[in-house]
Each structure stands twice: as C-alpha cells, then as structure tokens.
Amino acid sequence: MIRITTNSVLTNYKSQLLRSQQTLMKRQETVLTQRNFNRYAEDPSAATQAFKLRRIFSHTDDHITNANSLINKFDAAWGALDEVKDLVEQAANDISLHAISDPTASGRQAVSAALKNNAEAIAQCMNMNYGEFSIFAGNDGLNTPFSWDTSGKLLYRGVAVDSGSPAGLPEGTPPNPKDVTAPDGGWGDYYAANDDYKTLVAMTYETAYIDLGFGLKEIGGAIDSASAFDSAICGLESVGFGVDADGDPKNVASLMMQLSGVFSRCDPETGAYANSADAGAATRLTGKLQEAMSQLTTSWVDLDGRAAHLQSTKTRLEDYADTVNEQILSIEQADLASAITDYSWADYCYKAALQSGQDVISQSLFDYMR
Q: Measuring CA to CA, how many Å separate 74 from each of 124, 156, 179?
C-alpha cells in the first residue's frame, strides 16, 4: 500500500507547475524573438550549421564590398580615359583644321598652346585618385604616377616614358614581353641594354589581386591569377610608352608636346615652318597621334569590359548571399503562426495547472497547524 501524503502531492504539483511555467516562458520567448533558438545549448546541431552559414555569408558580404569598391574604381578610370580620349580627339581635329589643312596656317601658334595644355591635362587625368590611391599607378597607388621633369619630359613613377633605343631593336623583338631577362642574345640583349624601358615593361605586368570569391589560392608561393581579380591599372598601357623605329614617342602626351614644339617654332605671321624637318615632323607626328588615339580607344574598351565583368561578379555574389541568407533564416527563424499556436497551448496548460491546484490541493488552517 502506497501512502500519498499531502506534502508529496504538493511537491509533485509544484514541480509540474514549474515545468509548465518554463515551457510557457520558452514559447513566449520564441514568439517575441521569432527565433528557433537563442542559445547554443538549445539546439547544438542547428546552431553549428547556422554558424557555418553565417561565416559563409560574412565572407560573401566582404566579397561584395570589394566588388563595389572595384566597380567604383573602374568607373572612375573609365571616365578619366574617356576625358583623355576627348582631349586627344580635340587635339587631332585642331591639328587637321588649323595646322595642317589651313593654307595660311595662321593658327599654328594657337594650336601649339592648345596641344601643350591638352598634354598637361592628360597627365592630370591619368593622376586621378580613387579615395587615397592613384588609379593608374599599377600596384603603387600611394604615389602619383605621371609627372614632368624640368626638361619637359613625361615620367611614369620617376622613369621617362619615352625610354628605349629603336635603332638597337632586333628583328622579332616582342613589344612587351613579360620576362625581359630572357633569352640571352637577340632581343634579350636589347632589354638588358635599356634598363629604363625594361622597368616600364615590368610595370605593365604588376598585379594587385583582390579576393572576389573565386576560390583564392596560391601556386608556388604566388597567387593563382584564376582565383582572384587583378585590380591593378597601369596608365602606360593606355597612353603608351617607349619610342618607335623613327625615334618618336608612343605616348600620346609626349607626341602632343613634340607637336606643340614644332608648331611653336612656326612663323607667327605667316605660319611657315622653321625648317623642312619640322614640316615633315608635323605630318609624321600627326599620323602617329591618330595611331596612339586608336590604342587609347582599345584600352578604354578593355577597361569597360573589365568593369562589366566586375558588375556581373557582384550580381552573382548578391544572388549567392541571398541564397545563404535564406538558408540561415530557415534554420534560425521560427514559423510565427506555429510559434503563436504553441504559446497559446502552453498558456492554456499553465492556467489549467493553476486552476487544478486550487481545486485539488487546497489546504485548511488545521493542515498548516500540524
């Protein structure tokens, strides 16, 4: 025979009532926070999975931030090159209309001043900054890339852009080989004898890789180019560098400066050239300015293509981030309708327990006096 005392019934009732109250509070917390769990111990498996997904989401968010920054940088670069292109086109038109085609050539002095101003404006455009970093400085964005020395020569990071010796250029020499130290003999000797030009070539191959979620990895101690985005933009590739077989500069600003010098020596009254060499140089350099403008347009289009690639990458990353976020919500976020139903039931059970306690375990004054 089992003896059930009033105290044992009361103790058991209090224990069950406390459990019912805890259930009610948990269901209430779920409704208020709209989360399936708020502590790791509540659901370790789901919490672990959510932590992994949140880490992925955080990395993807960093990639999106990088992509946004690069898009803005490349948009600024594209705008700067567009302005440079307009300056070169304007210079070419002025030369054709007022310096070459004009029979009186009365405007050659004015064209000379315009060419000099445009050349200086081109250098300023190519020195544009995005934030604190120079856009067209390759991987040395902390320093201004283009400058003029005291003799009027254009420099790129301290090296004359018109470096090189066309007379010593062997047949079959690659224009800008990545490895400027090989092979021995032939064109390898040419680059060995032209250190400044070799330095300029090396600058065009500088890289500044940014992680955009392509699976960043290293091969042989170097970043795999297929696993990251190269954000470096070398201004030399757009405006040109070095000299051609005639010894004329390939850089658009230098060409304009040389043309400015030719026209500045013309007679201010008649516009006649100072000598026959200047007359030939004006025609020759004008044609090469058109070629340089073609290279500039190609670089401008290439830059637009890289910007489009960044935009598509950003879109892909945003879609991926949305997918990961949906997975996180499916684990962490509670179904509100179900949570409210569970809360209502827990509230009903708790109130029923209170009511039953009043009906079944009511104690008299004599019970307390024992």
A: 17, 20, 27
Instruction: Return d(Cα 64, Cα 314) in angstroms, integer.
Output: 6
Listed in sequence order, the residues at least 6 apart from 219 whose beta carbon sits closer than 8 Å to its beta carbon are none
Contact 314, 71 (CB under 8 A): yes
Nearest CA-CA partner of 229 in 306, 291, 152, 305: 306
* Residues in Cβ contact with 200 at an 8 Å cutoff, skipping those fewer than 6 apart: 156, 159, 161, 163, 236, 241, 242
pTM value is 0.77
Each residue's pLDDT tens digit, 31-78:
777 777 777 777 788 889 988 999 999 999 999 999 999 999 999 999
pLDDT tens digits, 228-250: 999 999 999 899 888 888 888 98
Tell me the C-alpha distance between 156 and 242, whole Å. Answer: 11
- DSSP letter (8 states) at residue 96: I
3-state class of 95 per DSSP?
helix
- The alpha helices in the chain, defined as continuous H runs, are 6-33, 44-94, 108-125, 187-192, 195-204, 236-239, 252-264, 276-332, 336-360, 365-369
Mean pLDDT of the chain: 82
What band does 369 get if pLDDT is binned at 50, 70 and 90?
very low
DSSP-assigned states of every residue in 144-170:
--EEE-TTS-EEETTEETT---GGG--
Q: Per-residue pLDDT tens for 91-117?
A: 877 776 665 655 556 677 788 888 899
Question: Are 128 and 136 in contact, with CB atoms under 8 Å apart?
Answer: yes
Show Cβ contacts of residue 214 under 8 Å, excluding neighbours closer than 6 positions: 226, 227, 228, 229
233 phi, psi to nearest 5 deg: -125, 115
Query: CB–CB of 159/199 below 8 Å?
Result: yes
Backbone conformation region of residue 5, classed left if phi is above 0, alpha if psi is from -120 to 50, else beta: beta
- Residue 151's identity, in one-letter code, is S
Beta bridge partners of 249: 243
